[in-house]
Every structure is written in C-alpha cells, then in structure tokens.
Amino acid sequence: MAIINLEYYSEVLGMNRNVKVIYPEASKVKGITESDIPVLYLLHGMSGNENSWLSRSGIDRLVRKTNVAIVMPSTDLGFYVNTTYGMNYFDATAIELPKVIHNFFPHLSTKREKNFIAGLSMGGYGAFRLALGTNSFSYAASLSGVLTFNGMEDRFDENAAYWGGIFGNWEQFKGSDNEILSLAERYEGEKPKLFAWCGKQDELYLGNEFAASELKKMNFDLTYETSDGIHEWYYWTKMIERVFEWLPIDYVKEERAI
C-alpha cells in the first residue's frame, strides 16, 4: 500500500489542487489484480481537507489488506457544488478529478460498478450530490450528512454571505439540483445504491430521518442506519468500517491493536 500526495493544476478552478491517494499493493492484497482496481472517492466535511480522513481516522490502516484505492480530494468550504461565486467544485470533483486520477493511475477502474463515493457531514451531502448528479458512481454513502436543509432555512438568513455564495438564497436553492431530494426525484437511469447513517444525538438526525423516508418512497435502494452518536470523528471512524462492509469490495478487516 502506498499513500501518495498528488498536486495537479485544475483547469476548472484555475489553481493548483492537492489530492491524497491510497493505492493498494497487489502483492499484499488477496484477490487483487494490477488492473481494474475499485475506487472509493472519500470526501471531507466542513473545516477539513484532503488530509482529514488520514489524520483523523487512520483509514490507511483500515484498508491495508483490502482491494480498493481511495481518492481524497478537497473542496475547501464549497460543498462540492458549482458555487454562485464562480468556483465550480462540482465540475472539478465529479468530472475533472476522475480524468486526472485515471491519467496518473491507469490501473484504477473506470467502470461505474467499481467506482464508489462516500463522505461525512458536508462530504455526506457531497457524496449524494455527486452520485445523483452524474451517472459515475454505483454506490454512495453518507455519514452524518446534510441530506436536507428543511428546518434550517434560518441559516441562509443568519449567514447570507456564505450560504448565498454557495447556493444562492433559499428560493434559488429550493428545487434546484443542489437540493438532494429534488435532485433524487428527477434522477433518471440506473439508480446508485445508497447508505446513510446519523447519530441520534446529532443535530442533523431529524433531517436524515426525513431524507431517508423520502428516498425510500422514490424507490432508491437505501440502507439507512442509526445509533447513539454525535457529530464527531469517533463515530465516523467506526462507521466507515460499516461502509466498507456494505460496499462490493473484498474488505478484510484489520484487527485493532490492544
């Protein structure tokens, strides 16, 4: 297994970007071949960056014996969308980044059935936004994700400069492709399989309950789980292992040191 820091120039954003890649070593992973390796795009939350999953969860240890490559980009505070202030993070992450990755790592699979996406908090929103806004990912997982902004309208007024810069005002946001449930309702083609978890003590819990109910009404294949937990890395580190078990990969659970 190798941990690689890739710096590249993003034509979409007009600036250099960094992405972390965990690349499996064929000789040490049972069943893996040197071509067509499954890929998981793993997204950070607000205040995070491309280093967050590595530094906070020890994810490199979790996948040491597993046949999947992990790509960890950064969207700054841009919510993985094409913002109203002109920074097109959706295009940069959903369209441009996979091309960059496959240019540098040609053995990674380009097949939809072997490309997955997951994230926490803002990244949970991003995982569903990218999966439902493209036809590139067959599985998408959200941990404590912002899957609906219903009941959070006051945030658009309290910090209008920030949220307006990301989504526009509330009226512009509602019904747009940036609203997960509206986007899901319009989705055409083969639906991605979805996974969502949120802690019962998390302020986003009721929003996840509502979003899960609505997605199931739309006949999405959604695995929805809850347990005690708050909006914190302790729970995300535990639940990313659950995501690995859910994904169609040969996940080999690494025993924790005592």
UniProtKB/TrEMBL annotation:
One of its GO terms (molecular function) is acyltransferase activity, transferring groups other than amino-acyl groups. Pfam families: Esterase (PF00756). InterPro entries: AB_hydrolase_fold, Esterase-like, Mycobacterial_A85_antigen. PANTHER family: DIACYLGLYCEROL ACYLTRANSFERASE_MYCOLYLTRANSFERASE AG85A (PTHR48098:SF1), ENTEROCHELIN ESTERASE-RELATED (PTHR48098). This is Lipase. It comes from Lactococcus fujiensis JCM 16395.
